[in-house]
Specification:
Layout (H helix, E strand, L loop, with lengths): L14 H19 L4 H38 L3 H67 L3 H9 L6 E7 L4 E4 L1 H6 L9 E2 L1 H4 L5 H14 L4 E6 L7 E12 L5 E10 L1 H23 L3 E5 L5 E4 L1 H7 L3 H6 L4 H4 L3 H12 L8 E6 L5 E10 L5 E7 L1 H45 L4 H25 L10 E4 H9 L8 E5 L3 E5 L3 H15 L5 E9 L2 E8 L20 H4 L2 H9 L4 E4 L8 E7 L3 E3 L5
């Protein structure tokens, strides 16, 4: 039986046919007599015939089904039995057809498999014969060229590539042959033929170590690279790398010939030494600065930390490398940790100082400020400082400012009440002194002083919250809209063209915008349009606020920002504007042309502005 075959159809002999015929006859008689068991019995010869004889078996099965139906009609007059037989006949034929199809498919597959096996066997015999022929040809070629191989190899090795010299040593003669570059490396002029190896060994200060290394190579029989220093014949000092390319043995298994290359790596070693020195210097400098320095990749795996990093946070590099997620130690809260990681690996976190709450080795939490600089190799250098004391001082200052604000409110309220009482007394005295004009004139001067005091009290309200809260990033357009919401500009149109520009400024930026709009409304004359736009410069960004009003005279352009100069309105607005912006280093000047409108230019330094949350 062939592998993969389950049934094998008889190919000759009458015995199987006789047995199948007998089985069919018995099945027909049994099915006709016992109608209820008919289907189960008649299936046996049908299945066997279709499985072993395929197409002829199908014809045979159809014939058996028809004979079964005829016998049923002849032996029974029961309508139910006849109806059942009529239904069974097509079912028998259908089963016979399915089995015949499966048998044919199996037979075709076996024939195809047998054919492929025979073809593969023939191809294998052909390949074997071809391989034996090629081997015999190769052996003949090797034998015929063995005598000329030495000269050809030397010719090939003599073709110098990249400062590499070739050499060949014979154990039989104890002599060495070298190419022109190989001889030059050792300080010898090019010569023809072989020369004693002692001439070469004399140039090697560590000849014993090198000789032992070569002996080890011969014992192991592998390719070997060895670096060592030489003193060429010209008196200089060089470093070379010695490589063994091939080791040949004689018929008795003893070393016969060794072939290799040698390369002068003096310049490369000097460059490596210089690079190593620079690396050591860099680490030495970084290790002694009072700033935390760490090199890590974007997955948070640390590569190097300096001494300040270790002393501040308490974790050593070895300890961190043992943790799969070091950032989980610094930032236990997963939500906050994700925020830190996203910030570090995003463009927004590159080149900007950011403050984080960092847990140190002993469990305490420090306020730290970090700046991350992406490197060309994909790693990140992080610079950090401990700002815990600064934060504590800021918090203390904030509490003091809050208390001063409360005191300022109480003082201002008390002064307002007292000036109201004083005004009432002066008004009463004025009524009592009716007709005494010279005394009334004096009282009017008192009224003027009271009004001035009241104006000063109202002016001080603007400075109550100055510096009370730390600066923050603010959208310029939003601040302008909020400033507009506090005043009425009637028919004046406005165009806010600042896009998504954000600046780092005091929280009172909204009031700054309000004061600029108020200045245009109250002092601009017939202003019909206010436009705010920006332009990027090498030093930062300039935000321009301009109107089409009367403008400001040339001699007043700087005075409007000074205390005690200009009108009371200017003291209450533009002085306040400059001082609020100055908290974060933003300058403001008036550059408009008199008669054509006011133009205020606010210069925001580099690093204090960004677009859509991204740094500049």
């Amino acid at each position: 039986m062939t592998s993969g075959q389950i049934f094998v159809a008889p190919t000759k002999g009458w015995l199987p046919l006789i047995l199948l015929s007998a089985l069919t006859f018995v099945s027909l008689i049994f099915s006709s007599v016992f109608a209820n068991l008919g289907p189960a019995v008649i299936f046996i010869p049908v299945i066997i015939a279709c499985m072993y004889y395929a197409k002829r078996g199908f014809v045979f099965s159809v014939s058996v089904a028809c004979i079964y139906f005829i016998l049923t009609i002849a032996l029974s007059s029961d309508p139910n039995v006849l109806q059942t037989a009529a239904i069974r006949v097509p079912f028998f034929i259908l089963v016979a057809g399915v089995i015949t199809y499966i048998s044919l498919q199996r037979t075709r597959g076996e024939e195809a498999l047998l054919k492929n096996t025979e073809e593969l066997h023939a191809a294998n015999e052909q390949l074997t014969a071809a391989g034996e022929e090629l081997k015999s040809q190769f052996d003949a070629l090797v034998e015929s060229e063995r005598s000329t191989r030495l000269s050809e190899e030397r010719l090939i090795m003599a073709q110098e590539i990249g400062g590499t010299g070739c050499w060949e040593y014979s154990f039989e003669t104890d002599k060495i042959w070298g190419s022109a570059e190989g001889l030059r490396i050792f300080g010898f002029p090019p010569v023809a033929g072989d020369f004693p190896i002692n001439d070469i060994e004399a140039c090697i200060p560590e000849r014993e170590r090198v000789h032992q290394a070569l002996v080890d190579l011969i014992r192991v029989g592998k390719e070997y690279n060895l670096e060592y220093a030489i003193n060429p014949a010209d008196g200089s000092t060089s470093k070379v790398i010695h490589s063994i390319a091939r080791l040949e043995k004689d018929a008795h298994g003893n070393p016969a010939r060794v072939v290799g290359v040698i390369q002068d790596i003096t310049e490369r070693k000097e460059a490596e030494d210089a690079l190593g020195y620079q690396h050591e210097m860099r680490e030495s400098i970084l290790d002694n600065i009072p700033v935390m320095v760490a090199f890590f990749d974007r997955e948070g795996h640390y590569q190097w930390i300096n001494r300040c990093w270790h002393s501040t946070l308490g974790w050593s590099l070895e300890e961190m490398m043992q943790h799969k997620d070091v950032f989980a130690e610094f930032y236990p809260d997963p939500v906050y940790r994700k925020y830190v990681m996203d910030y570090i690996t995003s463009a927004a976190g590159a080149g900007l100082w950011s403050d984080f709450k960092t847990r140190i080795r002993d469990g305490h939490v420090l306020d730290t400020s970090w700046i991350n600089i992406p490197l060309s190799d994909g790693s990140i250098i992080g610079l950090g400082i401990d700002i815990t004391e600064r934060k504590q001082a800021e918090d203390a200052l904030l509490r003091v400012n809050q208390k001063l604000n409360v005191l300022s409110q109480l003082t201002r309220k008390d002064l307002t009440n007292q000036t109201f009482v004083l005004s009432s007394y002066l008004e009463l005295a004025k009524n009592q002194l009716a007709g005494q004009d010279h005394i009334i004139d004096t009282l009017e001067k008192g009224f003027e002083v009271v009004r001035s005091i009241h104006g000063t009290i109202e002016y001080s309200k603007d400075y109550q919250d100055m510096g009370a809260k730390p600066p923050k990033w603010q959208n310029v357009k939003m601040a302008l809209l909020l400033g507009l919401s506090h005043i009425s500009i009637s028919e004046i149109k406005h165009s806010l063209e600042t896009g998504d520009v954000e600046i780092f400024a005091d929280p009172l930026l909204e009031k700054v915008c309000q004061r600029l709009f108020e200045n245009s409304v109250k002092h601009g004359g017939h202003v019909t349009m206010v436009r705010v736009w920006y332009t990027v410069t090498p030093n930062g960004v300039t935000i321009v606020f301009e109107d089409d009003g009367a403008g400001i005279p040339q001699e007043k352009k700087e005075q409007i920002f000074l205390r005690g100069e200009g009108t009371r309105a200017s003291r209450g607005s533009l002085i306040f504007v400059r001082e609020i912006l100055d908290i974060t280093g933003i300058t403001i000047t008036e550059t408009g042309e008199p008669g054509k409108g006011a133009r205020f230019e606010m210069v925001v330094p580099k690093g204090m502005w960004r677009v859509g949350g991204k740094g500049n």
